Recover the amino acids of this structure.
């Protein structure tokens, strides 16, 4: 018996072969904890605190085993005892503590920080329920709570408590710590705060609950619905709980390491992940005041310590809180915010730069830009648009503050863990240096013309497609044929991401098939997406896609060629199955609207080709792989921005002027769709597309249809040429490792450990 088996036996209290799955899972969790603890290090110099309302970490067992370097050994020990690691993984609930890209980025960053041996912790909230679980009832989305806190949880309760005042009452924020161990690296922590008083029995039907009982509901859900007043206020309370506890933790830890507060910036770097943690700025100034530091000096200290990341260009997503909300929730911050506003107005008399505007709304992003030393966008195009249009006033005021940090993804989860076949093949071809130095993936280019390698890549893709088919059948009862071309669009449902363009394109293909113009290859189009509970049109698009899927399935003439699969409850676990099995990655947002995208990088790394617009990080993907290895279509961001400025876009003109567009849109409320579809819902979507189409789907329609057809032809006609394109994509994906992103943040903004 080797040491690992021995320790597992001790932890199980019986031989591994005799332990049941639950006991084994628990033992593995303890084993990981022990080994992670051994990798904690004393912090020297500056330490990062990445404050974020979301950490979409996904299941942790496999990842931790990989990062500790014991995955293969554990699997072997289990196998010898007749146990299956994959089955144990199924016992773990996924912590869905994030909505999408921003939360998943935070999780990738924690992995990279620990892998690069940088001292950097996450700080957030311990929501009892993450993003809702999605169900389809009559092909419409229904939301139910998604519990993840099990008996055995990775987050360990501590006896560290911080007092937080809100709405005239005091609350005690309790710290839970979740160890994050890097790949052959150190252990950092994800610090999550919670209240002991939170009461899960508050939940009513679905995900609704009493929004007024603060002590009982504060950390119950990730971002409760903000469509009503009580929900929006709750969000302010959540944010303040998070940042006040974070600020106290940071001051406490820094003081323990010798900080005298005047020199806080030498001990701590704080990254503000979008505007959700922005109140940390006035809160820190307030706390420093309590330590005897004057306002002006406190402002300077906080500016030197904090940096801000912007993740969106959409004006409606930029947080602006009515002054009255803040006065009610955090009256202690208002005098500070008012002084910051006065300072800002001294520095710049342009109303566009004000913190408090004429309508008495507090602009969180403006406070961030004035009172942090760095503002970054998340892809080259995004940063450029921020500087040239959305935040141009600020760029003129503080040109030195603006910088770009193109997003990245952790290769440990999005390659090594989710695609072991490809990982092994890469190791065989180029050695395993790429695991810690992603730029080494370029060595793969050497095999560009090697038919045996190209064939092997396609075999791996086929096996992953088979695995996805098996998983789909087992978990969702859906049959898919793995020999078809798999196209996937998986991301939050939002009009700017344009799932509706994919919908219209599919209807067009339906008509083509009906007219005898058969596609070059049979295709299955997967969708994975959740819509915000109060986002009506997004839910309508889901319904339309599900109903269209029924129409195709019921028609043998069509289903031979085309299938739509809308995956239920898309989450990190589903993504890990879908991404390695994808041939064509749909990244079709309206140019200028997607800040970066990170799904696009995951698909590329796993050997899918991108069908996309020149938006977000797609632009950088296109530059890296070259025109012949990507399918780009549609208006440019400049054309789009010009069209918005001119305000002359008329969807109706496109609808009336193009018979193909009209035919596709009219199909939505035709007889076929109404067999299983809801007339009112489909009519509403149809009216939206004809009367508004705010994200300009129709001008890109024909280009999209043509480009997708081109991709299908290439796939069908020359598999070797297709495989070569895939190889180039994998080889060039190294740039999108979050290790690179984190190294860039550290070099330009944080200077950790110094
Ligand atoms: C704001 C106000 C009120 C309620 C909710 C919100 C809110 C919640 C979540 C605003 C934004 C978010 C999440 C944004 C997000 O995920 N953005 C994505 O960030 C990724 C990482 O940088 C990018 O790749 C994506 O392009 C961007 O859409």
């Amino acid at each position: 018996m080797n040491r690992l088996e021995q320790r597992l036996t001790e932890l199980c209290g019986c031989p591994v072969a005799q332990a049941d799955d639950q006991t084994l899972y628990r033992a593995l969790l303890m084993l990981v904890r022990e080994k992670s603890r051994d990798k904690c290090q004393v912090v020297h110099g500056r330490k990062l605190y990445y404050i974020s309302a979301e950490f979409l970490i996904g299941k942790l067992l496999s990842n931790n085993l990989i990062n500790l370097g014991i995955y293969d050994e554990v699997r072997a020990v289990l196998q010898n005892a007749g146990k299956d690691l994959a089955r144990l993984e199924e016992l773990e609930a996924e912590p869905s503590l994030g909505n999408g890209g921003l939360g998943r980025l935070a999780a990738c960053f924690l992995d990279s920080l620990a892998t690069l041996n940088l001292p950097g912790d996450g700080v957030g909230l311990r929501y009892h329920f993450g993003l809702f679980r999605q169900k389809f009832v009559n092909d419409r989305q229904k939301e139910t709570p998604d519990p993840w806190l099990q008996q055995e949880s990775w987050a360990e309760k501590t006896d560290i408590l911080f007092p937080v005042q809100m709405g005239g009452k005091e609350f005690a924020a309790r710290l839970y710590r979740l160890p994050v161990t890097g790949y052959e690296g150190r252990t950092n922590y994800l610090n999550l705060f919670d209240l002991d008083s939170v009461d899960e029995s508050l939940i009513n039907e679905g995900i609704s609950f009493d929004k007024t009982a603060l002590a009982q509901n504060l950390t119950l859900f990730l971002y409760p619905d903000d469509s009503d007043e009580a929900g929006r206020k709750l969000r302010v309370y959540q944010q303040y709980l998070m940042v006040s506890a974070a600020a106290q933790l940071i001051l406490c830890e820094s003081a323990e390491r010798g900080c005298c507060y005047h020199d806080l910036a030498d001990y701590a770097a704080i990254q503000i992940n979008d505007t959700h943690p922005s109140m940390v700025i006035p809160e820190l100034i307030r706390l420093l005041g309590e330590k005897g530091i004057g306002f002006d000096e406190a402002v300077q200290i906080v500016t030197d310590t904090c940096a801000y990341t912007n993740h969106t260009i959409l004006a409606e997503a930029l947080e602006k809180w009515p002054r009255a909300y803040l006065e009610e929730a955090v009256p202690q911050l208002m005098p500070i915010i008012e002084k910051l506003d006065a300072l800002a107005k001294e520095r710049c008399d342009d109303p566009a730069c004000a913190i408090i505007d004429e309508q008495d709304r507090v602009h969180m992003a403006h406070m961030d830009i004035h009172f942090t030393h760095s503002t970054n966008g998340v892809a080259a195009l995004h940063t450029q648009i921020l500087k040239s249009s959305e935040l141009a006033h600020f760029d003129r005021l503080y040109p030195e503050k603006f910088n770009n940090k193109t997003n990245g993804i952790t290769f440990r989860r999005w390659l090594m863990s989710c695609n072991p076949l490809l990982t092994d093949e890469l190791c065989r071809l180029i050695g395993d240096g790429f695991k810690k130095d992603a730029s080494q993936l370029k060595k793969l280019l050497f095999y560009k013309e090697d038919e045996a390698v190209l064939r092997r890549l396609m075999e791996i893709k086929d096996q992953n497609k088979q695995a996805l088919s098996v998983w789909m059948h087992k978990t969702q009862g859906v049959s898919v044929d793995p020999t078809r071309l798999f196209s996937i669009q998986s991301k939050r449902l939002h009009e700017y991401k344009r799932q509706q363009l994919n919908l219209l394109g599919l209807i067009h293909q339906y008509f083509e098939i009906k007219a005898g113009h058969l596609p070059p290859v049979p295709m299955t189009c997967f969708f994975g997406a959740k819509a915000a509970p109060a986002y009506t049109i997004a839910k309508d698009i889901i319904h339309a896609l599900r109903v269209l899927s029924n129409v195709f399935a019921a028609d043998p003439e069509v289903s031979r060629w085309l299938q739509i699969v809308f995956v239920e409850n898309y989450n990190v676990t589903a993504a890990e199955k879908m991404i390695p099995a994808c041939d064509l990655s749909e990244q079709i947002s309206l140019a200028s609207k997607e800040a970066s995208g990170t799904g696009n990088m995951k698909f590329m790394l796993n050997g899918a080709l991108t069908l996309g617009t020149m938006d977000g990080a797609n632009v950088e993907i296109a530059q890296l792989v070259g025109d012949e290895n990507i399918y780009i279509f549609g208006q440019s961001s400049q054309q789009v921005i010009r069209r918005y400025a001119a305000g002359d876009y008329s969807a109706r003109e496109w609808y009336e002027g193009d018979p193909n567009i009209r035919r596709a849109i009219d199909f939505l409320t035709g007889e076929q769709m109404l067999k299983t579809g809801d007339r009112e819902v489909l009519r509403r979507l149809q009216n939206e597309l004809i009367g508004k189409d705010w994200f300009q789907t129709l001008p890109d329609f024909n280009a999209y249809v043509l480009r997708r057809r081109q991709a299908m032809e290439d796939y069908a006609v020359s598999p070797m040429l297709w495989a070569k394109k895939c190889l180039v994509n994998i080889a060039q994906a190294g740039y999108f490792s979050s290790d690179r992103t984190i190294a860039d943040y550290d070099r330009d903004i944080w200077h950790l450990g110094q």
Notes: DSSP finds 33 helices and 19 strands in the chain. Residues 39-59+94-407+741-750 form a domain with the Rossmann fold fold (CATH 3.40.50.2000).
